[in-house]
Amino acid sequence: MTIARIPFIRKFRLKLYQIGEDVVITSKEIRNRPLSFHLKAVSTTIGAWVTRFLTVNFIILALVEMDFEFMSQFLLYARSQTMYVITQFSPTPGGSGVMELLFSGFFSDYISKGIGSIGALLWRLITYYPYLIIGVIIIPNWIRRVIKQRSH
Q1: What pTM was estimated for this model as a whole?
Q2: pLDDT in tens, 7-21
Q3: DSSP H helical ranges for 64-107
Q4: Which end of the chain has fewer CB atoms within 10 angstroms, the N or the C?
Q5: Residue 103: is it exposed, middle or buried by C-beta count within 10 angstroms (0-12/13-18/19+)?
Q6: Please, which residues have CB within 8 angstroms of residue 84's CB and are 6 or more apart in sequence?
Q7: What dihedral angle (degrees, nearest 10) is formed by the CA atoms of 69, 56, 92, 87?
Q8: 6: DSSP letter
């Protein structure tokens, strides 16, 4: 592995080789899976992401009276995807603060500022904060398990 030759990465060389071996073994294992396995994985992933982006549409539909026509819903969907892309460049974790500010501006054609604040709060309660709460529960247990395994 070429990357393992870089001086400050050299100390991780053995770990990198192990990861490389694991990737090769896993890819061989996955390669032998039936087509249905891959189709299920792809469709589940697409479904999860589409649902994540459609959450904005559902929240706006719940808060204000608007047309349910395809193009207006598609525009809402496109705006929510654009908002996610913009927040990838945010210096805060999860675009915290940035997303809430962008929400009212991005969807001002559909909702007022006051409703936008409520919408942003609902949206983050559904799509962001559960991950933080789950992380607070899972990560300490995972760290304890890793430390226990390493000590044995």
Answers
A1: 0.70
A2: 777 788 888 888 889
A3: 70-87, 98-106
A4: C
A5: buried
A6: 53, 95
A7: -20
A8: S
Given a contact cutoff of 8 angstroms between Cβ atoms, the answer to whether 80 and 57 are in contact is: yes
- Name residue, tokens 């050299």: 10
Give the number of other CB atoms < 10 A from CB of residue 22: 10
* Residue pair 102/87 in contact by the 8 Å Cβ criterion: yes
Token pair recorded at residue 111? 């909702």
pLDDT (tens digit per residue) in 80-106? 889 888 888 888 877 778 888 888 888
Length of the chain: 152
First to last CA, the chain: 30
Q: How many CB atoms lie within 10 A of CB 134?
A: 10
The residues, any chain, with a CB within 8 Å of residue 40's CB and separated by 6 or more, are none
- Calpha distance 51→105 (Å, rounded): 22
